[in-house]
UniProtKB/TrEMBL annotation:
Keywords, alphabetical: Membrane, Transmembrane, Transmembrane helix
Record's protein name: Oligosaccharide repeat unit polymerase
Listed transmembrane segments: 5-24, 30-55, 75-95, 138-157, 169-186, 192-208, 220-236, 265-286, 298-318, 338-358, 378-396, 408-426
Native organism: Bacteroides caccae
Highest taxon, organism lineage: Bacteria
Length: 429
């Protein structure tokens, strides 16, 4: 049986995380990382078993006639106009920045210190962390636009055999607007999401339109080259957030307990590679460190051991404490780093129930994939994307649980699937 593209996608991502843990010059040996790495690959195994189980189930197919399909091209044009109007307002509300000023500033486009610092300062001064009725339209509007953004990215990249030049231009424009609102905050997370959405859509396109795998030598070479360029941009933009931003490879401790190790073997052999890995480690290795520390200092302790197996035991052993509170209580500094959903689930539900949830995610992913192949249904495609995205998020962060826009987008996805909208979205001939 041919391996589904999204399963290969997750496997490659986990492989890169494993390599990064090995090469990152941090004050934490690869042996201490092992619990998180092993737990991550076991989660992949459960997900894979669930996927192949789901592939054996055929969902009832409800086909909507072509004549009743909506005109997506006109809606796409309308959506682009709305996004052009909304994103500058969104940027202004959350950062106080002017979108036009951002466009004219090179340091802004690189994600400079001024943007990041101004965003943090403006956010705190205006108390934007608190919910308000004034904030609600921006939260809801951005969540809806995010769903439509993913919808049209997949529609034109994965489902359309040959788009018009005007449509490619509009697609580039909405990509740029999405990128711009990340630039306004001086962060790179939006860029990461753009890469994931694009790669997911491209890999699906190869299956739906060309009926072959995306993962051949030529495409992997292209992705590698683009990856190097993307990492270069990321490292430069990250360095420019600091006052000493002239040094693109300036290395700092990730947190007070996960430090840069100047004596690490890779810094002696290939220091440039080590420097790049160190810049990435704060985003993609810290989650493994977090999970390993949870394993060594909490789950393997006499008090915390029942948490490993018993659902909600943590609420009895550590009342009124979150996973983050417990981790910090055992002298692990989390700083401003991402905290992985995988650790939070294990802490709350135990390892067996966590793996059962991952198995069920795989099961639904397999069923969705079957339905997509048979019907070209875009609503299920977005559902499959979010399942895959959560699998990428599990070991390193909380991309969905910490993002109201993603949560709103998922709610819309489930609503659309339940109500049966957008059935039989055919490939454009």
């Amino acid at each position: 049986m041919e391996r589904p593209f999204f399963l290969i996608f997750v496997k490659y991502f986990y492989s890169l995380l494993t390599l990064l843990a090995f090469f990152s010059p941090v004050s934490y040996s690869i042996w201490l990382f092992l619990p998180a790495i092993i737990l991550m690959w076991i989660s992949y195994a459960f997900f894979k078993v669930g996927v192949y189980k789901g592939l054996k189930f055929n969902m009832p197919i409800r086909i909507q006639s072509r004549s009743t399909s909506i005109n997506h091209r006109k809606i796409f044009l309308l959506f682009t106009i709305v996004m052009i109007a909304f994103i500058p307002l969104y940027i202004k509300y959350y950062t106080g920045a002017n979108a036009l000023t951002l466009l004219l500033s090179f340091r802004s486009m690189a994600g400079s210190d001024s943007n990041y610092a101004q965003y943090q300062s403006y956010f705190a001064e205006n108390n934007l962390a608190q919910f308000s009725m004034l904030k609600a339209p921006y939260i809801l509007g951005y969540g809806i636009l995010k769903y439509i953004f993913i919808f049209f990215c997949m529609y034109f990249i994965a489902y359309t055999k040959k788009a018009r030049k005007k449509e490619y231009f509009l697609l580039f424009l909405i990509f740029f607007l999405y990128f711009l609102q990340g630039v306004s905050r001086g962060t790179s997370f939006e860029n990461f999401e753009l890469i994931i959405v694009t790669l997911f859509s491209l890999t699906l396109r190869y299956k739906l339109i060309y009926n072959r795998s995306f993962f051949n030598k030529r495409n992997l070479l292209y992705v590698s080259v683009l990856g190097v360029l993307g990492i270069t941009y990321f490292v430069v933009s990250k360095s420019m957030r600091y006052a000493e931003g002239t040094d693109a490879l300036m290395l700092r401790d990730i947190t007070a307990t996960l430090k840069f190790d100047r004596d690490h073997w890779i810094m002696s052999i290939v220091p440039y590679i080590g420097s790049v890995c160190m810049n990435l480690a704060g985003y993609f290795t810290f989650g493994l460190y977090y999970t390993s520390e949870l394993f060594w200092k909490v789950l393997m302790s006499l008090d915390g051991f029942p948490i490993s197996f018993l659902p909600w035991a943590s609420s009895l052993i550590y009342p009124n404490m979150t996973c983050s509170n417990v981790i910090e209580s055992v002298n692990v500094d989390t700083g401003a780093c991402w905290q992985p959903d995988f650790s939070t689930l294990i802490f709350s539900l135990g390892i067996p129930l966590t793996y059962w949830i991952i198995y069920k995610m795989g099961f639904f992913a397999g069923r969705f994939y079957n339905y997509i192949i048979n019907t070209r249904d875009l609503s299920y495609t977005i559902g499959l994307f979010y399942i895959s995205y959560e699998m990428l998020s599990f070991p390193i962060g909380n991309f969905i649980t910490s993002s109201s826009a993603n949560q709103i987008s998922i709610f819309i996805t489930l609503f659309v699937i339940y109500t049966g909208w957008f059935k039989k979205l055919l490939i454009i001939k």
